[in-house]
Amino acid sequence: MFKMKRIPTYMLLMFFLLIAIIPFVIIVFTAFKTNREIIRGVFDMPEVWQFTNFEEAWNQAHFNQYFRSSIIVVIPVMITSTFLSLLTGCAFGRMNFPFKQALFFIFLVGIMVPQEAYIIPLYYQMDKLGLLDTYWALILPQIGMSVCFGTFWMQGFFAAVPRDLVDASKVDGCTMWGALWRVMLPIVWPGVLTMLVLFFIWTWNDFLLALVLVTKEELRTLPLGLAFFQGRHSMDTPLLAAGATLVSLPSILIYVVFQRYFIRGVTGGAVK
């Protein structure tokens, strides 16, 4: 009887799941079709699976080059932002120091202000520093934005760590640095992995920074490369679908692999 009551909930969740998945499924199927098959029906299966669309998008449309640029930007952003967010999150979550609330509010401003509001001043700042048309123009602003969110995110996790565990580690001779890496980090690890996934998705899908701060084709990331690719091949729908699949697939795979960490709480880590 208890399970019967859950059926309407499951049906509603399944409905929204289909709404989210069907557009992506259509794009993937389209990537394996020809233009003639698309005209015949969007939901029809391909007669012959056209892997040549992916080969052409990867090689002739320079998606291999765009993919390399995205990796060059994403990896430093993830590593640096995660390390700095751990330090700032621990500081705001576990320590008391002057102007703590004011400084934390400054980090929150980095979350509240939209990217469009500061992209023009950022452009001139990067120009003065001589960083336009370099990977640093994409990496450094992303680190700043990511750390703002990461500080807010990790502050809550560190604040929830039982004080008795930290005090016990200090009694055993741990410094605050040792307590961070040996005691608190294993407890907040689910939050760290979730933050890593968010950093990857946001940086991988970022479009505005790459559009404004770089003009060289070899520096374009995948979302920007797809936009220019769409302008040149607007009539070749299967090729566009193949390019869109290449852009979105890494984010989907990363999320699928780490999705369970989105629902794990810091209490579960502490009990373990």
Mean pLDDT, all residues: 85
Order of helices and strands: HHHHHHHHHHHHH
Inertia-based shape: globular
Proportion of beta-strand residues: under 5%
Q: Cα-atom Rg, whole angstroms?
A: 23 Å
- By secondary-structure content and strand pairing, the structural class works out as mainly alpha
Tally of contiguous helical segments: 13
> What is the helix fraction of residues, given as a range?
over 70%
Largest sheet: none
Description:
The chain is mainly alpha-helical. It contains 13 helices and no strands. Helix 4 (63-94) runs antiparallel to helix 9 (176-205), helix 8 packs across helix 9 and helix 11 (222-232) packs antiparallel against helix 12 (237-258). The longest helix is centred in the N-terminal third of the chain and has 32 residues, at 63-94. It is globular and about 70 Å long. 29% of the residues are buried.
